[in-house]
Please model this.
Amino acid sequence: MVEPLLELRGVNKSFGVVHVLHDVDFAVYPGQVTALVGDNGAGKSTLVKIIAGIYGRDSGEYHFDGKAVEVHGPRDVAALGVEVVYQDLALCDNLDIVENMFLGREETTRLGLDEVTMETRARETLASLSVRTVKSVRQSVASLSGGQRQTVAIAKAVLWNSKVVLLDEPTAALGVAQTRQVLDLVRRLADRGLGVVLISHNMGDVLEVADRITALYLGRVAADVPAKDLTHSQIVELITAGRSGDLGIADPATATV
Amino acid sequence: MTAHTDTASAPAPASSGFDNDNRQAATIGDAARDYVNRLRGGDMGLLPAILGLVALLVIFASLNDRFLTTYNMANLVIQASSIIVLAMGIVFVLLLGEIDLSAGVAGGACATITALMLIDYDWTWWMATLAGVAFGAVIGLAIGSLVSFLGIPSFVVTLAFFLGLQAVPLRLIGSGGSLRFNDPVLRGMSIKNVPVTAGWIAAIVIVVAFAALSLWRYRSLSAKGLVHAPIGLVVIKIAVLAAVVLGLTALLSANRAPNPDLFDISGVPWVAPVVIALLLFWTFVLTKTRFGRHLYAVGGNAEAARRAGINVQRVRIMAFVICTSMAALAGLLSASYTGKVSPGSGGGNVLLYAVAAAVIGGTSLFGGRGRAIDAVIGGLVIATISNGLGLLNQAAYINFVVTGGVLLLAASVDAISRRRRSSAGV
Ligand SMILES: Nc1ncnc2c1ncn2[C@@H]1O[C@H](COP(=O)(O)OP(=O)(O)O)[C@@H](O)[C@H]1O
Ligand SMILES: [Mg+2]
Model:
């Protein structure tokens, strides 16, 4: 069995009195797509933001490449090679595509920002992802469609030779063709050897691209199993009831928020 | 500055991948169409301010024949300088969607410090200036920290500072008093002129440098296949800049003394190179440095900036520090013009003028959009209104009403263009 690239152990997180994550174990393997599924409010986005270093965790360990690491913010996580594409896309509407892709990590020369390098690399990355729908890399992000924004956000994550990419509901707002493109992209990232985490509500998408499935139920891990061992209806049961056959939380009725 | 090529012609063939995207609006016609599209989308740029400035010049020239004299034009430039410098500082906080209501009186307090250093401690002009600017920076640090760390809305923090800072000159000068401001260098900024020959040399250097830089940029961008503006547009920009710079220099190099046989008043006032240097410096910071990029990012989407690893609090504090430091310079320029600092310096409509200047120039009150040049054009508009109305011998209240109206108009244009931008998605 391959070692996980990124692993959380026993993570708890509360917002005030609301206990959102309970002793969550979560692992991401290189070259695999791990689907993180769960109902609305199950805590998926919160887990992603903890991995991203946006939220601190109340308890639990953060391991990367087999070693425990301390992360104190988005910068530390990015330095590990972990990139996140957020559900609420983190793009600045007033900046153009290149500026967004390099935000916070701008290339510079002695004379200031190195627009030449940045524009060239942005264009190369978009081309390597076979993005065809964007007219100009100097277009402001405000002028892009939902699918194009999603593509820019993913391209931004890929630009950095990252090792782990997390995508929080990347296809939720997309049409059929754009969803197809994004799923192909997700598969291609994993085939490059990256650890990919995909959050999605679409079971078809999940079963198509995922290698592993981790199901969250009210902030608890209900199952963490290879995708091929699960059927569509089993996943739905895990999501809605926290149990399916002998899989799942022992007694979901006692699980409270 | 980025060349926008959004609307250029045919879409790339489906099989071609991304490397066939548009790099250039091929002709000036395309570039003009781009611009019209941006206008429709609500991105006004400098155009309304420039048109407004021309309209004001025409109106005041037709109402009063002393208005367009070179003597008055030079006067207008000097009056505009302190508004412009303050507005340039205000642009930084507006970029973040914040406001600094105390910047005007902070300038007055800083000028008081500088004047005291000059008079009571015999400091040289640049040390006294540094003291004033340092005082401004400390005020900005305090405001920025309160806004950033405690999360108090900036208009509340700066309203408190607006009240509190008026105590500084009142305490140091005493009510009814004033400090003379007659250091040869500092006072000279407003009442002395650059020697005519030096003025011409500087003007030509500016034009040549701008032309060389623009053409070099055009060549290197097009050679590397990066997005760039069409050559026609580059040439037009150079021509416009040359016309403005050389024209103004010619105007100000003539002897403008009301009594030309007795006196010789000619040359560009020293405030002009001061303003130009600040303009170049801040334009560089805003467009060519990481800090500048981060300012726009925080103003556009603070959460996205935070997730990108930008230290949003530091950026916010720096914006206030820059704003108040520039306010200190503006206070000095204003004292230089009047020759004194009094407890009322920087009060009244000084701040309103500066905010209006920035917004008229095209800086958005909602954050994320603004440039240093906005302050220059907007400041000239405001100074023209105040200078022109002054010549017409209107009662002071008219000035307040007109300036307030202009600010409201500019803010409305800003709000409407923002709505159109979000619906047109440009
Ligand atoms: N910043 C926050 N403050 C308070 N509660 C939050 C916050 N973010 C999320 N929550 C709560 O945490 C729970 C999980 O939310 P989230 O992680 O967004 O779920 P999911 O992404 O699985 O739909 C929800 O009950 C939500 O209301
Ligand atoms: Mg979510």
